[in-house]
Amino acid sequence: MEPKAPLSLFCLTSFLAFSSISILLFANPTVSDPQTRFLDRGCSLYNVTRPAPFFNNLNDTFAEIRSKINSTARFATADRARASNPLYVLFQCRGYLSTSDCLTCFTVAAAHIRNCSAANGARITYDGCFLRYETNNFYGETTALGNFGTCGNGTASKAAGFNQTADQLLRDLTVAIPRIKGYFGAVKREGIGGAVVYGVAQCVETVSETGCGDCLRVAYGNLEKCPPDGNGRAMDAGCFLRYSDKEFFSLNQTVDIARFLKTGKSSKRKKAIIGGAVGGAAAILSILLLLLLLRHSKKAKKKPQKGDILGATELRGPVNFHYKDLKIATRNFSKENKLGEGGFGDVYKGVLKNGKIVAVKKLALSQSSNAKADFESEAKLISNVHHRNLIRLLGCCNRGTELLLVYEFMANSSLDKFLFGDRHGTLNWKQRFDIIIGMARGIAYLHDEFHSRIIHRDIKSSNILLDDDLQPKIADFGLARLLPEDKSHLSTRFAGTLGYTAPEYAIHGQLTEKVDTYSYGVVVLEIISGEKSNDPTREPEKQYLLEWAWNLYENDTLMELVDENLDPKDYTVDEMKKVIEIALMCTQSSVTSRPTMSEVVVLLLSKGQVVTQPTRPTFVDATITHDGGVSTLDV
């Protein structure tokens, strides 16, 4: 009976929503304008595993948002971050709406977003407001896949001057809004020939000034070709941009953005004069402070931060754990606590003093001073990577010859256990597809969205960990950068046939992000078939998974590749063939022909079949010796 509760709640909410809308709209139609024109909605492909607590949290956070909006706020967040089923909610009204109109827009949004049912994330946009919820913290997100612009159908009157005026207004809003407190501005601009343009730009208040600017620049790119159309709107995860030749906000709500556009010489000159006047005093004060700090530093050594999962934040970087604490947590790195062995070292289960369970990796790297310096800088970089499909680095420890990394713990272990191990055949198709799309999103983030591009170099099923909901989290990213430049971990680690590694990297050392694309394609074939990338115990024609898949593709018998443990009722033939073809596109011989991981995400989520057909991969039937020599190559 549990699923009926959300449905009943939705019906009640919908009734109240539209009752409220009717009262507000018809009570004073000349004043009230909540701008509830629907623009866009998106629902996550993932569903929550426990609907009842999820809907309870959703109801509670929505009520909290409503209370904040009722107190004249135009922006509000509410979360249940520390709950067993975390939830984050963000709502924003355009700055020119009245409190009553803002509440009306929220009521409509809250009712309609529930059509996403038990999806673990959703967002909905109207002219007047924006509502989003996720089970992961997204508050700092600015621009994301799915951003778009829409242009009006009619050409503006007085189009001769309208184009130039509209374009300049959009450019000015892009520059000014990130500098305005609250990230909002509404502007009326009069141009040549009597053209008039009304424009609005807004960023969510939880993003940075830089993030706001980045988002609005993308939005401008989605609108710049709209004029001479009379109106246009651009939407993204962290911002909204709109223009029109018709008034859509009260003129007493306009903002003078001219002063936020100035970067002139006069301002710089004033700063220089002030700087010169106080420079001498500041220099003397700085010297005194420096001497004081140097004296103090000799008396006390800097203590590491206390090891606690909650202490690992984006601002502070990784927590510096005490070695003795990790030693106790892992029972002296006992065999009983050992979770597995990887190319970069062994991994142990640990229980911290606060009861939190973690995974501790003992790195097997060079002990040179350069290696330790690189370790600290890379640990700081990796700890700032925050994505639902990437394992979270919580902290590190650098003690003598010991270099340790502390990660969040994944109780379901790694993907290979579900494909080839004791849990073989337990994943249904939906779970497998969720893993396929989640992996793609995680790798795309490393390649395109993180501020420093990270190439993983070792994507494989044992490096894909699964959380409690069987969602994928990629492990070991960033660690390959710690290896010496003249030695790939592949040359020292493999002494058998190649499976996941792109030929151009394994043989020639050519490293691009397409190396990860190739490996991803191989893992997808493993997920679909339930077979290892190479297995000498299989029949000769099936020993190398990629070659077998390609032969089936050429013979139009792709469905023979599908794991017999999958229920045919859970998928369509066209759907399965499409995913296999995308995997083959990722493994093409030509590096430039392989799609980027961002393109892979779009291909997987798009409807219909793949238009571009894959070309033949390079089949590497090779043995790599410890010095990196290749004995055979079959192309």
Structural class: alpha+beta
Radius of gyration: 28 Å
CATH architecture of the largest domain: Orthogonal Bundle
Q: Describe the strand arrangement of the main beta sheet, using strand numbers.
A: 11-15-16-14-13-12
Number of helices: 17
Q: Quickly count the domains.
A: 4
The CATH superfamily of the largest domain is: Transferase(Phosphotransferase) domain 1
N→C terminal distance: 58 Å
Identify the CATH class of the largest domain: Mainly Alpha
What is the average per-residue confidence, as pLDDT, rounded to a whole number? 80
Q: Outline, from the CA principal axes? A: globular
As residue ranges, the low-confidence spans are 1-31, 264-278, 296-316, 484-497, 622-635
Strand content: 15-25%
Task: Examine the coordinates and then state which fold CATH places here, giving the name of the CATH topology of the largest domain.
Answer: Transferase(Phosphotransferase), domain 1
Helix content percent band:
25-40%
Specify the biggest β-sheet: 6 strands, mixed
Number of beta strands? 18
Q: How would you describe the overall organization of this protein?
A:
The protein has four domains: 4-134, Gnk2 domain, C-X8-C-X2-C motif (Killer Toxin P4, Chain A, 2-Layer Sandwich); 151-260, Gnk2 domain, C-X8-C-X2-C motif (Killer Toxin P4, Chain A, 2-Layer Sandwich); 309-408, 2-Layer Sandwich (Phosphorylase Kinase, domain 1); 415-605, Transferase(Phosphotransferase), domain 1 (Orthogonal Bundle), CATH 1.10.510.10. 38% of the residues lie in helices and 16% in strands. It has helices spanning 4-27, 51-70, 99-113, 159-176, 209-223, 258-261, 265-299, 323-329, 369-383, 415-419, 429-449, 489-493, 503-508, 514-529, 545-554, 573-586, 597-605, and strands spanning 38-43, 75-79, 88-93, 121-126, 129-134, 148-151, 184-190, 196-203, 231-235, 239-244, 319-320, 338-342, 345-351, 357-363, 393-399, 402-408, 464-466, 472-474. A six-stranded mixed beta sheet has the order 11-15-16-14-13-12, sandwiched between helices. Helix 14 (514-529) runs antiparallel to helix 16. It is globular and about 80 Å long. It starts with a helix and ends in a 30-residue tail after the last helix.
